[in-house]
Amino acid sequence: MRLTTKGRYAVTAVLDLAFHQGKGPVSLAAISERQCISLSYLEQLFAKLRRNDIVSSTRGPGGGYSLQRNAAEISVSDIILAVDESVKMAGCGDSDACDGDYQCLTHDLWQELSNEIREFLDGISLAEVMTNQKVKEVSIRQDAVSASA
Predict the structure, then answer these.
(1) Is the pLDDT of residue 3 over 90?
(2) For 56, which DSSP code?
(3) Could you tell me the domains of the chain?
(4) CA dihedral 37, 41, 43, 46 (to 10 degrees)
(5) CA 64, CA 27: separation in Å to the nearest integer?
(6) Residue 17, pLDDT above cutoff 50
(7) For 54-59, what is the mean pLDDT?
(8) Which residues, in sequence order, are CB contacts of 106 under 8 Å at separation 6+?
(9) What are residue 47's DSSP bridge partners?
């Protein structure tokens, strides 16, 4: 599977947000610092995430972003799709005409793999990722590094 930087960064940033929103809205600057993702890139991603009801924004001092829904109700694929990404393996897309007017030899194979990946990511909620012990440890380490900076 070839997931672009946009999709990976979106999932990472929303996961960071989910870990930190308990103290109120989270600024993109804080996510940028912890995750080493460009602030301008995060602004672009979060505009799409907001339009697709993954996050909501709060303006003004102390403003930032919060999850629009409970972390258990947001799947990894929801986030990827919100930033206009797909998990398609076939270079020919959904079209039945891969090579001119005909399907390529491996079209159905790659289409089936894409469907499996999508199903897998549909079945993983943000809340489930947050319960992973290794993910928790990374978040704690990032917070410690960020606090000492």
Answers:
(1) no
(2) E
(3) 5-87+126-148 (1.10.10.10)
(4) -80
(5) 4
(6) yes
(7) 95
(8) 90
(9) none
Amino acid identity of residue 75, one-letter, is S
Give bridge partners of residue 26 from the DSSP assignment. Answer: 65
46, two tokens: 């979060």
- Residue 18 and residue 71 in contact, taking contact as beta carbons nearer than 8 Å: yes
- Six-digit token pair at 124? 């993983």
Q: Which residues fall within 8 angstroms of residue 68, CB to CB, at 6 or more apart?
A: 53, 54, 55, 56
Q: In angstroms, what CA-CA distances link 139 with 29, 112, 121? A: 16, 34, 21
Residue 104: DSSP 8-state: -
CA distance 129 to 97: 38
Which DSSP letter does residue 98 get? S
Report the 10 Å Cβ neighbour count for 82. 22
pTM of the model: 0.87
